[in-house]
Design a protein that fits this description.
two-stranded antiparallel ribbon; 16 strands; TIM Barrel; alpha/beta
Length: 297
């Protein structure tokens, strides 16, 4: 009867009733940006970020079912008390997380998803691919099949699984195909989203605009980052280091707006890993102030 009644509604009302809810756009910080501070004094660091005006954080530390030393329920309260929430997080998926004989995830990965759900995360993101599985086409296909399976598991828990790029996806090839292309072509977009880090790829020749144009709608989350040429080898051994937003060569403002337009981006996670004689927290404050002037959200 509900379906029949819906058919009698005016078309405009039907569209409003059944259209998917628009994703909330937000600006947050990947806590790897302040990793040393989080390791030594997590509460004080989170408080400092909150005072700066951050409302969202993305974790980069989940060990033995704890986030920065806190159980999921404890960390959720810590964040809430500071006016923070954590819509996404990074946990590396590796071979030990899937039991091939049982064709099922191990408890360790099931706990990863369960604890992410406790924090009301939207995205559970793996920021790498097991190096052993990257050595062969069949190995990579196995990993990407597991990614799709993780997407099913995350969906059952009200979330989505995601992958975050580094630099090797643009330099390594299998069967004469760049690895990043293989990742897109062999993951189900309904099960695996992509978190685009346009800083990581820069020194290896990857250009974010090319990938945003090539795979529209596949990038709901970004790592907002800028890169500068360095005299040394750089973070990725590519001659570049991350720097405060707007001080490098990447043009993150243009890429954020493009990603929002064609990539479906609504999570904008600030990340900086090198600091050029500033403290990580000083950089975090500058970066938030800069991106807020853009009118992105």
């Amino acid at each position: 009867m509900a379906v029949m009644a819906a058919g009698l509604l005016p078309k405009v009302v039907q569209a409003a009733t059944f259209a998917p809810a628009k994703k909330q756009s937000l600006i947050g910080i990947q806590l790897y940006s302040v990793r040393d501070d989080m390791a030594k004094k997590p509460l004080e660091t989170l408080k400092a970020l909150s005072v700066m005006g951050y409302q969202y954080v993305e974790h980069a530390n989940y060990v033995n079912r704890k986030f920065y030393g806190y159980k999921a329920t404890e960390f959720k309260k810590v964040l809430a008390d500071l006016g923070l929430s954590m819509p996404s997080g990074h946990t590396v998926m590796n071979l030990s997380h899937f039991d091939k004989a049982k064709n099922d995830f191990t408890d360790a990965w099931k706990y990863t998803v369960e604890d992410a759900a406790t924090l009301n995360q939207e995205y559970v993101i793996s920021p790498s691919i097991d190096e052993k599985l990257r050595r062969s086409y069949d190995g990579l296909m196995l990993q990407l099949d597991i990614f799709n399976k993780s997407g099913v598991l995350c969906k059952k828990n009200g979330m989505q699984f995601g992958y975050h790029n580094h630099e090797f996806e643009f330099t390594e090839k299998l069967n004469d195909t760049v690895m990043y292309d293989l990742i897109f072509k062999n993951t189900d977009p309904n099960l695996v989203v992509q978190q685009l880090d346009f800083g990581n790829m820069y020194g290896s020749g990857g250009r974010a605009k090319e990938w945003l144009d090539k795979y529209p709608g596949r990038f709901p989350s970004l790592h907002v980052k800028d890169e500068m040429k360095t005299d040394g080898k750089g973070e990725m051994n590519d001659g570049y280091d991350s720097t405060t937003i707007g001080d490098g060569v990447v043009d993150p403002k243009m890429l954020c707006f493009l990603a929002k337009k064609v990539g479906g981006a609504h999570h904008f996670m600030i990340e900086q890993e090198s600091y050029q004689n500033r403290t990580p927290l000083e950089c975090a404050k500058i970066n938030l102030a800069t991106i807020k002037t853009w009118g992105l959200v």
